[in-house]
Amino acid sequence: MVKYPKCALCPIESQSRACLDPDGSGPRDCPTLNKQKAVSLARLEYEDAKTREFARQAAIQEAECYWDRERGTYPIKPRLKETIEFSQRMGFTRLGIAFCAGLKQEARKLAEVLEGYGFEVASVICKVGCISKEHLGISDEEKVRRGTRENICNPISQAGVLNEVQTEFNIVLGLCVGHDSHFFENSDAPVTVLAAKDRVTGHNPIAALYTVDSYSKWIKGK
User: Class for domain 78-222, per CATH?
Assistant: First the structure.
């Protein structure tokens, strides 16, 4: 029988967990203790120079997001600043933005900020290509605005265009669930997410989790 990892439900106190302490413990489904093949393969991956440097700079960037680390961990940098600094650490000069049409103004501001730091910035809107939803077999009843022409969100082309201009690091800004997955799958360059689409919470999806036991408990279903 397959033992699925269930780290989210781990009953072990934080500092006593096997993932944080070499002498720590874990439940029967703990992947640190029971998925050594995956852990060993990862160790080998980190021996690759490019992978190792990317991971090293990410770890350094994580620490640099806190102030006065000798006395505590006080976060001081928003994700936008973190993205900029990580790109600088990696020596990236050409960045890509794959954005939702609904966040065009935010995309403009993002591009302006990045260009202000000296980056070359390529940006591609989700509706690139002007491909009708009928191409996917979408019926009029399945459209957002029935009785009108609607074009598909086209993350495969977004990735393709950014691949052609050889961006070194791509930033996702508000792509829908599923569309973002296609972009991740097709992007040649590594990808980070600046904003995850959530039409209800102002693109703060985790807000629903904070209220899932109160105002948003209807999300749990039955």
Answer: alpha beta
